[in-house]
Amino acid sequence: MSLAHLKSLIRTIPDFPKAGIRFRDVSSLLVDAAGFAEAVERMASIAPQDIDLVAGIEARGFIFAGAIAGKIDAGVLMVRKGGKLPGPAMGRDYALEYGEDRLEIHDGQIPAGSRVLLVDDLIATGGTALTSCRLIEDAGAEVAGAVFLIDLPDLGGAQRLRDSGLDTHALLTFEGE
Ligand SMILES: O=P(O)(O)OC[C@H]1O[C@H](OP(=O)(O)OP(=O)(O)O)[C@H](O)[C@@H]1O
Ligand SMILES: Nc1ncnc2[nH]cnc12
Question: What is the C-alpha to C-alpha distance for residues 74 and 151, in angstroms, rounded to an integer?
Answer without folding.
Answer: 24
